TrEMBL record:
This is MBL fold metallo-hydrolase. The keyword Cytoplasm does not apply. It comes from Streptomyces anandii. InterPro entries: Metallo-B-lactamas, RibonucZ/Hydroxyglut_hydro, UPF0173_UPF0282_UlaG_hydrolase. PANTHER family: L-ASCORBATE-6-PHOSPHATE LACTONASE ULAG-RELATED, UPF0173 METAL-DEPENDENT HYDROLASE MJ1163-RELATED. Keywords: Hydrolase. It comes from the Bacteria.
Amino acid sequence: MTPVHVTYLGGPTAVLELAGLRLLTDPTFDAPGAYPIGSRELVRTAGPALPPTEVGAVDAVLLSHDQHPDNLDRSGRTYLERAPLALSTPAAASRLGGPVRALTPWQRAELPLPGGGALRVTAVPALHGPPGSEPLVGEVTGFVLSGDGLPRIYVSGDNASLGLVREIAGREGPFDIALLFAGAARTPLVPDAPLTLTSEQAAEAAGILGARHVVPLHFEHWAHFTEDGTSLAKAFAGAALTDRLHLLSPGASVSL
């Protein structure tokens, strides 16, 4: 099976390389500091491992959503404008325009591979918080990547629902690789529940998905992420899934 090379840049941002294509998840390249969002602000505590100039060109951006600066910041927007294609929610496409193409849940796009064939990108549902929080947090999507001779990859986006993980696993699984947005994000907007997977939920999701490899994203570099790499390692160990976990340092890569 075609190998996948994943480079973690920090926060929700990673480069995926497979079958001659380069993909980027949720571009965030701004410096540390406070970033306003409505009457609130999100605080970035560390910058990316690589600036956009060193990341270089990609064939497509997989953008889970555009309305929060911890998933698309100002530098990320500039990078996005130069990308040949970005796949995201209908709401993001209407706000951003340019290269952003809308995918509704279970809708597919095909990206031609340099050696022939195509990479299928299927939008899958995501819930950015507890049930009922959609009007507050907005529209979010995840992605499934698949194709003949290619590994099956799940990119969760900012999803906090294990029920949706079960639905995705039932329709699209099992998976070879899962990129799980974790960190148990919390903000005053939804004070009583996490907006992304907790560490224990991430470990449970790995089991539900049947994922042989898990690369966590979205668990550090922002102050509202309440669980980190240490808690992820503990949760996966408690679920006897340590061998599946690839906990990368910013700038590090893994071939799967």
